[in-house]
Specification:
Layout lengths: L16 E3 L10 H6 L1 H9 L4 E6 L2 E6 L2 H9 L4 E3 L2 H10 L8 H11 L5 H6 L1 H13 L7 E2 H18 L5 H23 L11 H23 L9 H7 L11 H31 L2 H15 L13 H13 L6 E5 L3 E3 L2 E3 L4 E4 L1 H5 L26 H7 L13 H18 E5 L8 E2 L3 E2 L4 E6 L5
Parallel strand pairs: 1-2, 3-9
Antiparallel strand pairs: 2-3, 4-6, 5-13, 6-9, 7-8, 10-13, 11-12
Bound molecules: protoporphyrin IX containing FE.
The site of protoporphyrin IX containing FE (HEM) has 22 residues, from helix 12 and helix 17.
């Protein structure tokens, strides 16, 4: 009925809507979505604006056109956080900022936003650089190492030291470092499946996951208790502890802080680790780009580690990172749920319908990013033949999402990734062990899987 409709699309109904082929009885498209999701998304989404897919018996829509994607991400009244990914995550990690629905989100975000003010992020530059330099100093020339693992370790340490405390007790830090990867991978494995399988059977994987959950919750509680009254907020956790609602003056309860810490751990570690691993891999397979980055690192840093004041001058590093985030966006798929009868560019949508958004799909549309499979950091220069009108490309480049649910940690992540990247570029050349191109592994984030690389030391050019 017209009166129940909560708003209509601002776009005319000229969208190309198709139904994804080969739905299986009862399962619909669950099998290709789980087995080969990236190929499936590109196959069905390349030439359409909206594609109807079947998740079991339910209908969902993959939104493929950047203007429609923006409409969905910006209008949280009609399209809220929800759909299977966030519904599963909420059951597993609670109702922190990542999973909160609209009614709760606004209050939470106002509380947490000050913790991500750029002046705070600037304070962490020293810790981030120190961790990057310390981790890479342990590499041995010519000895292969799993770069995915190495980047995971360094990002976990940076998360712990900036989120919790720079002086985290050694035993606590070790417990966290061991539990976190098991926990994160377990959470995402359980969340990304459209159909939830029972995961309480006492098999080794479930027992390991349960143990990691207990460790993590215990550690978070003890760190929160120890930081209840910070004299001067030095970590993100301290900032959460002292933050007050601008209207009511209320602080967050310990339970709320716990949920927010879980949300940050979930959102921060794997995403940055995947972004860095892919960037290093792509550089190793594009030696000219690698040399240009090294030349920039040499020119700006010489033989000292990077500092805050270097960040604005790292133009090549920024383009490299931007392009890596385009070609291999860590958050490759997320969902929204329709809150009320509405329509999206002419398609009538019922409440509870799931919408799928895939930055991976948008970033690989040849009409938006010419030769999308090529890693070309200079496509971001206006002089490049691959450069398209900034508005069109910006609208389609969504590694951090958009609207009021856009990643709260975007600047934090970029600062962190740039510092690690130039610290490595200044000191090391990385070679892959295997010549076969690495295919993206779509799990929690778009990872590389195990990635053996050989570090070769280099000295900065004079
Ligand atoms: C390269 C690294 C990162 C990528 C690609 C990334 C990507 C994203 C994306 C796409 C979203 C929006 C999801 C949606 O709309 O459903 C998001 C949300 C979020 N991210 Fe990130 N993220 C990164 C790093 C971080 C870091 C370092 C933190 C925290 C320290 C963080 C914290 C969050 C939080 C709390 C949200 C939820 C925001 C809200 O709903 O208000 N992320 N991220």
């Amino acid at each position: 009925m017209q009166s129940e409709n909560c708003g209509t699309s601002e776009f005319p109904s000229n969208v190309r809507t198709v139904r994804a082929p080969h739905a299986l009885p009862l399962l619909g498209h669950v099998v290709p979505l789980q087995r080969r999701p990236l190929d499936f998304l590109l196959e069905i989404g390349h030439h359409s604006d909206v594609v109807e897919v079947r998740i079991g018996l339910q209908r969902a829509y993959l939104v493929c056109r950047p203007d429609l994607v923006r409409e969905v991400l910006v209008d949280s009244r009609r399209f809220d956080k929800g759909g299977w990914i966030f519904d599963n995550l909420r059951l597993l990690v609670g109702n922190g900022l990542v999973t909160a629905t609209r009614d709760e989100h606004h209050r939470q975000r106002r509380h947490i936003q000050p913790a991500f003010h750029h002046s705070r992020i600037d304070q962490y530059v020293g810790v981030m650089t120190l961790e990057a330099v310390t981790a890479t100093a342990r590499w041995h020339a010519g000895v292969p190492l799993d770069m995915a693992e190495a980047m995971h370790t360094v990002t976990t340490r940076i998360t712990m030291r900036t989120l919790f405390a720079a002086d985290l007790d050694g035993a606590v830090a070790t417990a966290l470092q061991e539990a976190l990867p098991i926990y994160l991978r377990g959470v995402y494995r359980r969340a990304m499946f459209p159909i939830r399988f029972p995961s309480t059977a006492p098999v080794p994987g479930n027992l390991r996951f349960a143990r990691a959950c207990r460790t993590l919750h215990g550690v978070i509680d003890s760190v929160i208790a120890a930081h209840r009254t910070p004299s001067e907020p030095v970590s993100l956790l301290d900032a959460l502890t002292v933050s007050r609602d601008p209207d009511t003056g209320q602080t967050l309860t310990e339970g709320e802080i716990h949920e927010q810490v879980m949300a940050m751990l979930l959102a921060a570690t794997e995403t940055v680790a995947s972004a860095l691993t892919w960037t290093l891999y792509l550089l190793s397979t594009h030696p000219d780009e690698e040399k240009r980055l090294q030349a920039e690192a040499d020119r700006i840093l010489g033989d000292r580690p990077p500092t805050l004041s270097d960040l604005p001058h790292l133009a090549v590093a920024r383009r490299v990172l931007n392009e890596a985030l385009r070609i291999r966006p860590p958050a490759w798929l997320f969902t929204r749920v329709v809150t009320c009868p509405t329509n999206l560019a002419g398609i009538e949508l019922k409440p509870k319908t799931t919408l799928l958004i895939s930055p991976y799909l948008l970033h690989h549309r040849p009409d938006l990013f010419p030769q999308p499979e090529r890693f070309v950091p200079d496509r971001w220069l206006s002089t490049s033949p691959l450069y398209r009108a900034r508005a069109a490309q910006r609208g389609a480049l969504l590694p951090f999402g958009a609207g009021n649910r856009k990643c709260i940690g975007d600047s934090y992540a970029i600062t962190w990734a740039l510092l690690v990247l130039v610290s490595i570029a200044a000191r090391w050349r990385l070679r892959t062990v295997c010549d076969t191109p690495i295919r993206p592994v779509p799990k929690a984030t778009l990872g590389t899987g195990r990635l053996l690389m050989i570090p070769e030391p280099r000295t900065p050019a004079a």
